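Quick one: co-fold with pyridoxal-5'-phosphate.
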Amino acid sequence: MQHKVEFFRHNIGDEEIARAMAVLNSLFLTTGEEVSLFESRLAEYLALPHAVGLTSATAGLHLSLLALGVGAGHEVITTPLSFVASANAILMAGARPVFVDVEDETGNIDASLVEGAITEKTRAILPVHLYGSMCDMRRLREIADRHRLVIVEDCAHALEASRDGVRVGHLGDTAVFSFYATKSITSGEGGAVATRHGRCAGGLKMLRSHGIESDAHDRYTRLYRHYDMVLLGWKYNMDNLQAALLIPQLARAEEYLARRSLIAARYEEAFSRLEGVSFPHVPQGARSGRHLFTIQVDPHLRDRLLWALQERNIGVAVNFRAIHLMSYYRETFGFQRGMFPRAERIGDSTLSLPLYPKLTDGEISRVIEAMEESLAGLKKG
Ligand SMILES: *Cc1c(COP(=O)(O)O)cnc(C)c1O
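Sure, here it is.
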């Protein structure tokens, strides 16, 4: 058997390890200067004035809603085709997720359905830029402005994305990033929120550490003074070790994207010749973050194809099965199959293939061959 083509391999190397070592050899491990440096580099990369380092994107979605005044009694419009975090964060904030269906072509929230889901309780829209391909933010901003809603962008796949000249976070009120183990830059666990609004950034900084008005770094580096807690916050602050791992990777984000784009182009070229296989399309005028390469096959073949690829030692994943069909959502809110048919169809037919800079040319060929052989095998019997 040939070696396994892993589903994902991170890019942490000597530079990241040396930076992390410097933090370990320093006095201060938690939120301090290394985090501040990462925050300013991230803000600069995104061309936004503020970024706040957190422990996860889930934390970022949760705190964004709180900082923007979304809570009990409110509704938030979002997509059913995402990782559960995007809808769970709405529940964590005490609000209620209202799903609208997605576009067939991209899997992103269908902006033309959003207005129909707005009620007097609606306070926010939470779009997810799925697989790295941006939602129609110009359209969503127009709708939000007309109804005085805020927008929290889930950019867990879309650090590098833009569309129609608009980058992530430039039309939304906050943009939320994940540095989870399989994301394009990673510290194992980690996240951040970037925002155009200074007041919101200040709120996020308090909310990430129990609602205390000074952070630990201030308390330790200045002369002791008593601190006050002014609102109920959470414990979501990024630490210096996470920041040390992320700073060098952020500097190479464009290089990584270029390699992923090349791999995606090779897959698209090969799979457009395969009968019964389709893949999402990046809209005209959009620059995808190319976070995931997904294909779609007949739902009856999907799970068999997953096993056939794994038998050939290819790492695979499913991103994502529709959130409203998860047991908790069905049982708590009475969601059923048939409510969001396009999200369900994609959820039942999608499969993700390896896509990361360290994937070698030989491994790309093996994935393509494994796809061809597996599909031929499944069609025969
Ligand atoms: C990974 C992911 C998240 C959650 O990120 P964490 O940092 O693990 O909390 C949220 N939304 C989407 C779309 C994701 O893929």
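If it helps, The first helix runs from residue 14 to 24.
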